[in-house]
Design goal:
This protein is mainly β and 191 residues long. The chain is built from 1 helix and 14 strands, in the order ββββββββαββββββ. It has a 14-stranded mixed β-sheet with strand order 7-6-5-4-3-2-1-14-13-12-11-10-9-8.
Length: 191
Amino acid sequence: MFPADIVWRPSTGIGYEHLKVSEENNQILIDSIVIGSHNNNDIFRIKYDIVLDKSWVARAVTIRYLGEDRGLRLLSDGNGIWKDERGQVIPELSGCIDIDISCTPFTNTLPINRLSYEPLQQQEIQVVYISAVELNYRQVKQSYTLLESGKDSSVFRYQSGNFMESITVDSNGIVVVYPNLFYREKGPDAR
């Protein structure tokens, strides 16, 4: 799987994401740039970096607007304790292992690769949901259910609140199709 170069595009509107996955010092490193638009059609350029351990557990996430001073950095001990960039514990994120960044399909890969799945058995998790546009975060409940498993791809039902979608991932757990949101244009199994 490593290194990997992946490009997604949104299913509507304008934009692209270029993501690089690499491995170094027993860590999985994610480096990505997202270009897109807000609801009011303002264009944004966001760079995010994620440091994962070998079990796909988030240890650090940094998001910043390119060309601006705005940014966010969160650090995790890997066991559900999160700190801000000043080292202060964030109690409202206690117990979260995974992250979900609003502007990318990639963060679905973390719980898909971290957890063990039996067909049709729902896995509920608490995640740090990060709004890339507003640069804020909150804890939310999400669930993943393995619907289909094949040699080259699998389909998972993702649910958060009233939102539900079936997402197709490749054999590495990386999103290929997230209907009505994202489609992979470059990388293994691009559609």
